[in-house]
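Our consortium's second objective concerns turning raw sequence data into structural hypotheses that experimental partners can test. To show how far this objective has progressed, the report includes one record in full. It was chosen at random from the queue rather than selected for favorable results. The single chain below, 370 residues long, was entered without modification.
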Amino acid sequence: MSIRRVRPVHALRGIFFLFATATGTVHADQGPANDQESAQAQRPAKAPSPWILLPTFSNNPKLGTSGGALVGYARKFDPESQVSMFGVSAQYTSTNSVTAAIFARTSFDQDRHRLSVLAVGGLIKNDYDNFLGTGTPLKSEDHIRAFVGRYLYRIKGDWFIGAQTIFTNYQIVGQTALDDDLLSVLGLTGFKAGGVGLVLNHDSRDIVDAPKRGWYLNLNNIAYRQALEGSNNFSVYRADYRQFWSHGDGNVFAVRQSNQWTANAPPGAYAPVVLRGYTMGEYLGKYMSSFEVEERLRLAERWTATLFAGVACLYGSNRGGCTDSANRFPSAGAGVQYILKPAQGIVANMEFATGKDGNRAVLFKMGYAW
């Protein structure tokens, strides 16, 4: 099956290549020649800028070329809280797709409260060579507007409880009458939905964006209901576990085990393969489970490298199980990172990832993959 598609979820995530102006510090000379030099030496070091400018770029065989920009602002509300980030982004692709987003990720009151919001709008154009293995080419447009919000409250130690909500009008329309007919026959018309859910979270990572130790567990659900929005009643359940071990001189070994299960969901809301090297949303199944390992090597004071490998499985309904190689999706790759803001753990990350059936990608982004 050959599919060339720009999926909404992938476009919203974006692939970020970081660019920012370096901030300098004033160094005292061992023996200043005059009072003016002495006064300059005693001045406090200039604080790093909280602003981040992120030109965005990505290219892979499935998506073509995309570019755009992200402007972000990072700060800590108090010493005990994690770094909060606010920003806007926009992206345009060679398939004439466009998306824009406004986001905020906050931690405040000594990290007792965490609030995240995301608002997205866009037009995604899809170009299928062999739509879902039917042998028929298809062109479609995905019109998407969405709002996502999550609130967490620290109940004890590193444990949080909270709630989340999502509203979306994700729709698929064909670019021709024949495309519309094929979409209707296959039942892929997108969905308009609103949902709410609960969250149980454990987070003992030392730095959220570049952890060197600790573990993370996220259990949550979204119950989409007609009473809130849309015409479908279905549910999505997720479980995500990550652990980080520091070793050697600044190296980190990390593992991640991720799951997503759906119940009575329309095909457009099925679980995607989430590994690097695969287009988000191109491969979908009723259920998905994946496992990844990653080694983060410290090369120099502000440089690291990554080596990673993993495998995902789609199962449920008529797909069969994970023993069938058609349902397994391996991934491997490597990358290099520049530590742009050491205190916040923000890195510029370039990685190459490859999967099966010719899937591969060069990723330029902000932060580690997870």
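The partners drew two points from this record. Residues 109-366 form a domain with the Porin fold (CATH 2.40.160.50). The two ends are 29 Å apart (CA to CA). Both points have been shared with the crystallography group to help prioritize constructs.
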